[in-house]
Write a structure and sequence with these properties.
Largest sheet: 5 strands, mixed
Distance between the termini: 27 Å
Helix content: 40-55%
Number of strands: 10
Strand content: 15-25%
Radius of gyration: 19 Å
Protein backbone atom coordinates (compact mmCIF):
# COMPACT_ATOMS: atom_id res chain seq x y z
CA UNK A 1 0.00 0.00 0.00
CA UNK A 2 1.40 3.39 -1.01
CA UNK A 3 0.33 6.98 -0.42
CA UNK A 4 0.46 9.47 -3.26
CA UNK A 5 0.23 13.26 -3.04
CA UNK A 6 -1.06 14.92 -6.19
CA UNK A 7 -0.83 18.68 -6.73
CA UNK A 8 -0.38 19.33 -2.97
CA UNK A 9 -3.76 17.75 -2.33
CA UNK A 10 -4.62 15.43 0.53
CA UNK A 11 -2.57 12.26 -0.08
CA UNK A 12 -4.56 9.47 -1.71
CA UNK A 13 -4.39 5.93 -0.37
CA UNK A 14 -3.93 3.47 -3.23
CA UNK A 15 -3.19 -0.22 -3.69
CA UNK A 16 -0.58 -1.13 -6.28
CA UNK A 17 0.06 -4.65 -7.54
CA UNK A 18 3.51 -6.20 -7.00
CA UNK A 19 4.46 -5.74 -10.64
CA UNK A 20 3.28 -2.11 -10.66
CA UNK A 21 0.78 -2.76 -13.42
CA UNK A 22 -2.47 -2.29 -11.53
CA UNK A 23 -3.55 0.56 -9.27
CA UNK A 24 -6.78 0.59 -7.31
CA UNK A 25 -8.15 3.73 -5.69
CA UNK A 26 -11.10 3.79 -3.32
CA UNK A 27 -12.20 3.13 0.23
CA UNK A 28 -10.38 0.36 2.08
CA UNK A 29 -12.39 -1.28 4.86
CA UNK A 30 -10.94 -3.56 7.55
CA UNK A 31 -13.65 -6.23 7.66
CA UNK A 32 -12.46 -7.49 11.02
CA UNK A 33 -12.74 -4.15 12.82
CA UNK A 34 -15.21 -2.49 10.40
CA UNK A 35 -12.88 0.51 10.28
CA UNK A 36 -12.54 2.61 7.12
CA UNK A 37 -8.75 2.52 6.75
CA UNK A 38 -8.80 5.17 4.02
CA UNK A 39 -10.72 7.67 6.13
CA UNK A 40 -8.49 6.96 9.13
CA UNK A 41 -5.52 7.86 6.94
CA UNK A 42 -7.21 11.06 5.75
CA UNK A 43 -8.01 12.02 9.34
CA UNK A 44 -4.37 11.61 10.38
CA UNK A 45 -3.32 13.90 7.51
CA UNK A 46 -5.84 16.52 8.62
CA UNK A 47 -4.40 16.43 12.13
CA UNK A 48 -0.84 16.88 10.81
CA UNK A 49 -1.84 19.75 8.54
CA UNK A 50 -3.75 21.67 11.21
CA UNK A 51 -1.04 21.10 13.83
CA UNK A 52 1.44 22.88 11.56
CA UNK A 53 -0.65 26.09 11.45
CA UNK A 54 0.13 29.16 13.49
CA UNK A 55 -2.68 29.57 16.07
CA UNK A 56 -2.33 33.34 15.70
CA UNK A 57 -3.79 33.09 12.19
CA UNK A 58 -7.02 31.60 13.57
CA UNK A 59 -10.00 33.21 15.26
CA UNK A 60 -10.35 31.28 18.50
CA UNK A 61 -13.29 31.23 20.88
CA UNK A 62 -12.25 29.66 24.16
CA UNK A 63 -14.42 28.65 27.13
CA UNK A 64 -13.02 29.02 30.64
CA UNK A 65 -12.22 25.32 30.85
CA UNK A 66 -12.12 23.79 27.34
CA UNK A 67 -13.13 20.13 27.23
CA UNK A 68 -12.95 19.84 23.44
CA UNK A 69 -11.28 21.68 20.57
CA UNK A 70 -12.66 21.87 17.04
CA UNK A 71 -11.45 23.63 13.89
CA UNK A 72 -14.13 25.20 11.72
CA UNK A 73 -13.75 26.44 8.15
CA UNK A 74 -16.19 29.33 7.86
CA UNK A 75 -17.45 31.84 5.30
CA UNK A 76 -19.05 35.24 5.93
CA UNK A 77 -21.73 34.58 3.28
CA UNK A 78 -22.72 31.13 4.58
CA UNK A 79 -26.18 31.00 6.28
CA UNK A 80 -25.27 28.00 8.43
CA UNK A 81 -21.97 29.62 9.44
CA UNK A 82 -24.05 32.54 10.67
CA UNK A 83 -26.28 30.14 12.57
CA UNK A 84 -23.22 28.58 14.19
CA UNK A 85 -21.98 32.01 15.23
CA UNK A 86 -25.38 32.82 16.73
CA UNK A 87 -24.99 29.76 18.96
CA UNK A 88 -21.40 30.54 19.96
CA UNK A 89 -22.27 31.10 23.63
CA UNK A 90 -23.86 27.67 23.97
CA UNK A 91 -20.86 25.97 22.34
CA UNK A 92 -18.53 27.57 24.88
CA UNK A 93 -20.90 26.78 27.77
CA UNK A 94 -20.58 23.13 26.76
CA UNK A 95 -16.79 23.38 26.91
CA UNK A 96 -16.24 23.46 23.15
CA UNK A 97 -13.36 25.65 21.97
CA UNK A 98 -13.75 26.78 18.36
CA UNK A 99 -10.84 27.73 16.12
CA UNK A 100 -12.02 29.43 12.92
CA UNK A 101 -10.21 29.30 9.59
CA UNK A 102 -11.33 31.18 6.49
CA UNK A 103 -12.84 29.42 3.50
CA UNK A 104 -14.61 31.90 1.20
CA UNK A 105 -16.49 29.44 -1.00
CA UNK A 106 -16.67 31.89 -3.91
CA UNK A 107 -12.89 31.95 -4.14
CA UNK A 108 -9.81 33.68 -2.70
CA UNK A 109 -10.33 36.72 -4.95
CA UNK A 110 -14.04 37.19 -4.25
CA UNK A 111 -15.78 39.99 -2.35
CA UNK A 112 -16.31 37.53 0.53
CA UNK A 113 -12.57 36.87 0.66
CA UNK A 114 -11.93 40.62 0.75
CA UNK A 115 -14.29 41.06 3.70
CA UNK A 116 -12.70 38.11 5.48
CA UNK A 117 -9.29 39.71 4.99
CA UNK A 118 -10.70 42.84 6.67
CA UNK A 119 -12.00 40.69 9.55
CA UNK A 120 -8.65 38.99 10.05
CA UNK A 121 -6.86 42.36 10.13
CA UNK A 122 -8.95 43.94 12.90
CA UNK A 123 -7.91 44.07 16.56
CA UNK A 124 -11.06 42.16 17.61
CA UNK A 125 -11.45 39.47 14.99
CA UNK A 126 -14.35 37.67 16.65
CA UNK A 127 -16.50 40.80 16.87
CA UNK A 128 -15.58 41.68 13.28
CA UNK A 129 -16.56 38.18 12.14
CA UNK A 130 -19.96 38.62 13.74
CA UNK A 131 -20.36 41.99 12.02
CA UNK A 132 -19.40 40.50 8.65
CA UNK A 133 -21.81 37.60 9.05
CA UNK A 134 -24.66 39.97 9.83
CA UNK A 135 -23.87 42.28 6.88
CA UNK A 136 -22.83 45.20 9.07
CA UNK A 137 -20.02 47.68 8.33
CA UNK A 138 -16.57 46.52 9.38
CA UNK A 139 -14.06 48.58 11.37
CA UNK A 140 -10.94 49.81 9.65
CA UNK A 141 -8.38 47.06 9.14
CA UNK A 142 -4.80 47.36 10.37
CA UNK A 143 -3.14 46.02 7.25
CA UNK A 144 -3.53 43.51 4.44
CA UNK A 145 -4.51 39.99 5.53
CA UNK A 146 -5.38 38.69 2.06
CA UNK A 147 -2.35 36.39 2.18
CA UNK A 148 -3.73 34.66 5.28
CA UNK A 149 -7.10 34.15 3.60
CA UNK A 150 -5.47 32.72 0.45
CA UNK A 151 -3.35 30.36 2.52
CA UNK A 152 -6.30 29.12 4.55
CA UNK A 153 -8.36 28.71 1.39
CA UNK A 154 -5.56 26.56 -0.08
CA UNK A 155 -5.40 24.47 3.10
CA UNK A 156 -9.16 23.87 2.93
CA UNK A 157 -8.84 22.62 -0.63
CA UNK A 158 -5.92 20.41 0.34
CA UNK A 159 -8.05 18.85 3.08
CA UNK A 160 -10.94 18.21 0.74
CA UNK A 161 -13.20 20.90 2.19
CA UNK A 162 -16.01 21.80 -0.20
CA UNK A 163 -18.68 23.37 2.02
CA UNK A 164 -19.08 25.57 5.07
CA UNK A 165 -19.17 25.26 7.91
CA UNK A 166 -16.84 22.26 7.90
CA UNK A 167 -15.88 21.00 11.34
CA UNK A 168 -12.70 19.04 12.01
CA UNK A 169 -12.41 17.31 15.37
CA UNK A 170 -9.20 16.76 17.31
CA UNK A 171 -8.80 13.26 15.88
CA UNK A 172 -9.15 14.57 12.32
CA UNK A 173 -12.77 13.51 11.83
CA UNK A 174 -14.46 15.77 9.27
CA UNK A 175 -18.08 16.79 9.80
CA UNK A 176 -19.50 18.86 6.93
CA UNK A 177 -22.31 21.23 7.80
CA UNK A 178 -23.86 22.81 10.87
CA UNK A 179 -24.19 20.74 14.04
CA UNK A 180 -26.23 22.07 16.95
CA UNK A 181 -24.26 22.55 20.21
CA UNK A 182 -25.96 19.70 22.12
CA UNK A 183 -25.52 17.27 19.22
CA UNK A 184 -21.88 18.27 18.74
CA UNK A 185 -21.17 17.75 22.43
CA UNK A 186 -22.66 14.25 22.17
CA UNK A 187 -20.44 13.44 19.18
CA UNK A 188 -17.33 14.80 20.89
CA UNK A 189 -18.05 12.90 24.09
CA UNK A 190 -18.54 9.66 22.16
CA UNK A 191 -15.29 10.06 20.21
CA UNK A 192 -13.40 10.91 23.40
CA UNK A 193 -14.65 7.70 25.04
CA UNK A 194 -13.66 5.65 21.99
CA UNK A 195 -10.20 7.23 22.05
CA UNK A 196 -9.71 6.39 25.72
CA UNK A 197 -10.86 2.80 25.17
CA UNK A 198 -8.43 2.45 22.29
CA UNK A 199 -5.55 3.73 24.45
CA UNK A 200 -6.39 1.18 27.17
CA UNK A 201 -6.36 -1.62 24.63
CA UNK A 202 -2.88 -0.61 23.39
CA UNK A 203 -1.58 -0.52 26.96
Amino acid sequence: IYTLSLHDALPILVIISADGRYVMQGEMIDLQTQINVTETFRASERVKTLAALDPKTMISVLPNAPAYHITVFTDVDCPYCRLMQQNILEYTQRGIAIHYLAYPRSGPNSSAALRMAQVWCTSDRLSALLLAQTDQPLPNSRGDCSKIIREQYAIAQKLGISSTPSIILEDGTLIPGFVAPANLETILNKITKIGRASCRERV
